[in-house]
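Intended use. Records such as the Recombination protein RecR entry shown here are meant for training and evaluating sequence-to-structure methods. They are not intended to support clinical decisions.
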Amino acid sequence: MSNEHNDYVRDLVFSLKKLPGIGERSARRLAFHILSQNDAAAFNLANSIVNAKKNVNLCKVCFNLASEELCPVCSNNSRNEKMLCIVENPEIIYVFEKSGNYNGYYHVLHGLINPLEGVGPADIKLKELVDRVAGEGFEEIVIALNPNSNGEATSFYIQKLLAPYNVNITALARGIPIGSDLEYVDKDTLAEAISGRKKF
């Protein structure tokens, strides 16, 4: 293989390594798998990525992923308008919806407060959260953040932010192991955590 070809493979591996949970070995395996596919399969993958980046934006209300102004959840008038669940990223909404135990609306923070990485309250969707709680008449706010140090710190900050409002703040029950990520929790455990949520 020529140096030029090696450069192309190296660049592909380098790009794949930037994906979460993908190390050097996995990136290399993925790169060689993609290159072993026929042109149609490889170009379909590339086109899917391009099309998703072009056409998927953030919902103007909850900041979930959406191909229109509103995501499918926010455009669904049959959901419980008195409940709002706060999550870190859009992937958690997928996990919640798969569990089938929550029928309210969501608010996506797009991150957690993390001083060590320079992420402060102004860097995530907290102002927008307060605006929604002040204006939309929610009765219960479910804080559903990962049970790690950044998740706990963000949860306490949110509790203080929302203290002036007449709203019941709850958290997921502690059936979820400390330090785990919600996107990897099985649906039955998550369903129990939702059903058994407690006052924050």
